[in-house]
Amino acid sequence: MIGFLSSRSPSEAAYVVAAFHRGLREGGYNVGQDVRVEYRWAEGQYDRLPALAADLVHQKVTLIASTGGIGAAVAAKQATPTIPIVFTAGDDPVKYGVVASLNRPGGNVTGIYNFISAMEAKRFGLLHETVPSARSIAGLLNPSYAGFDAQLKDLQEAARAVGQQIHVFNASSEADIHAAFRAMAPLPAAALLVGADPFFNGRREQLVTLAAHYSIPAMYELREYALAGGLMSYGTNLADSYRQVGNYAARVLQGNKPADLPVVQSSKFELVINLRTAKALGLTIPPGVLAIADEVIE
């Protein structure tokens, strides 16, 4: 029995769960036939993760797939020093003490490091280049997220490097998100960068809808935002990260030790631009940005 620990919500995470199942299947395990999965969802409330991880340990699962951010991986590792753990996270697992090193994880943990949270400065630069007329850029961050301090520092440094004014708004609930948009709406010629955060991923429809309502050009971390109508995104393919978690989980079930499986580091990042949204905003995407897009939604 596999334990699946996630900071996300089941309704919005179906596509990544399907990718995880696909990875298991590629490794020879069909969910419901060869293996059973016990799911535990924090639904964006990160403080629930330790209890959820402890519950999976109590259930005597054979392996824990820890997903939805570094907080889930930390909670799983703190819950058990023996049950194998395979994670996917956007923050450096070495920095958070989840593994000893990327090449030699050690202990009972390995996984996929997709660098999502480490790309805030790059996303900021792309947004600044796309909306050069913006006199201010707003950043929406979640102070409850483990990577908040690093994200805030990266955004402030990126803004300072190009002489751009930045206003950071905090949000840890749906009500906070609404309040943040109301507060940023009066900013002159503003654009918005939504920080990489599983909590925001679970509310992407709300974020995209509010950005459209207030006519704010916005940059996000995942292509799913652009597919939902967001202006643009830059990041790794999250579904593929979950597929790789399934692959690694299958290898561990076959007898491989996590300590012997190097942490997989994502190497491909994609820029997705929604031209329909750009047109609705009255925004012309600069040719230089359009030329480097991996996917254009027309």
Please, could you describe this protein's structure?
With 298 residues, the protein is an alpha/beta fold. It folds into 2 domains: 2-115 and 237-265, Rossmann fold (3-Layer(aba) Sandwich); 117-235 and 270-297, 3-Layer(aba) Sandwich (Rossmann fold), CATH 3.40.50. The protein is 39% helix and 20% strand. It is built from 12 helices and 13 strands. The protein has helices spanning 14-26, 49-58, 70-79, 120-130, 148-161, 174-184, 198-201, 204-213, 223-227, 238-253, 275-280, 287-291; strands at residues 2-6, 37-41, 63-67, 85-89, 109-113, 136-141, 165-170, 190-194, 218-220, 232-235, 264-265, 270-274, 295-297. The strands form 2 sheets. Strands 7-6-8-9-10-12-13 form a 7-stranded mixed β-sheet, sandwiched between helices. Helix 5 links the parallel strand 6 (136-141) and strand 7. The longest helix is centred in the C-terminal third of the chain and has 16 residues, at 238-253. The model has no long low-confidence stretch (mean pLDDT 95).
Could you give the topology of this structure?
Elements: E1 2-6, H1 14-26, E2 37-41, H2 49-58, E3 63-67, H3 70-79, E4 85-89, E5 109-113, H4 120-130, E6 136-141, H5 148-161, E7 165-170, H6 174-184, E8 190-194, H7 198-201, H8 204-213, E9 218-220, H9 223-227, E10 232-235, H10 238-253, E11 264-265, E12 270-274, H11 275-280, H12 287-291, E13 295-297
Parallel strand pairs: 1-2, 1-3, 3-4, 4-5, 5-11, 6-7, 6-8, 8-9, 9-10, 12-13
Antiparallel strand pairs: 10-12
